Amino acid sequence: MLNGSLIFSDYQDDQYSVFTIDQLKLVVSRNSILSIETILDLEPLQNENNSGCLSEFIINNISVPIFGINDDLDLLRSFPASRRACLLLKSDSGKPFGIAIDTINTLENIDISIHELPGFMLFDYSPITSVLQTDEKFYGLIDNSSLASLLNVDIYYDTTKNTQSELIASNA
Amino acid sequence: MPESNAWLIKLTEKETIAIGENELLHIITEPDLYKIPKVKKYCQHVIKWKNQVLPVMNITGLLYNQDIGISGIVGIIAYKHNESNTINYAAIDLTSVPKKISVNDKDACELPEPLHKWKPFSAVCFKKNNNVIPIISLQKVFS
To answer: B48-82 burial by CB neighbour count: b if 16+ within 10 A, else e?
Structure first.
């Protein structure tokens, strides 16, 4: 439950970045970011696949799928004009993936608290299971692995030739 | 016969419920809500209240498992948690300001068949002005 579900307060060891997708403002732990790229550096898709990804980014010799999503976290068929950056994220499965975003900034030197959402709000696949609170605002805290599952990242990797060792190196 | 107070909450033109007098703590008009994507359609928002983050439940949406949307009024409620027996706080979406009423024990009745849809959230109801009003268990709504 939210009442008594405070995970931590004023916790400074981990740092967070705020990113926007249309009207949605989310946060992600900086430890779980692989890199942030300009959308201009994305590669066109080399091979057709059923994953729903729109583009790829080559990093450490592996192709990382890049997805376009809206502020309901639904897949898009093209990148809206407002998407200017690409957030490459690590995942527990060792298969990095990216999402196109509008803006990204760091949360610096402010007091935060993180609150777990109650179970009755969530599905098994819900990628936001906590809310980060600052003095004035809320941000959904993204769980990378749940988001990867929601976006079917595995389907992309099942149809590409990235090797396991390359994936482990890229996700480190 | 003993009387007690309750809040009458009109959810829609057809749906009116009641909750205990002490369960509704605060009413907020034009609340500042944050929407969470990819969660249950009847509970998609959270609100900040007294430095807590509370889920906002749309009870009509819960009843019909639908996305009803959100109105401009939210009620902060308190209920006793089933397992821990602690007081929990949450919010419910209100379409209008609730009305405080007095309920006499002699008006208590069983849930009639047309209101059986409320059974998961209500065991009892009462008669008021020729209407039958289910009394909602907030424990069951937020479980």
So the answer is: bbeebbbbbbbbbbbbeeeebebeebbbbbbbeee
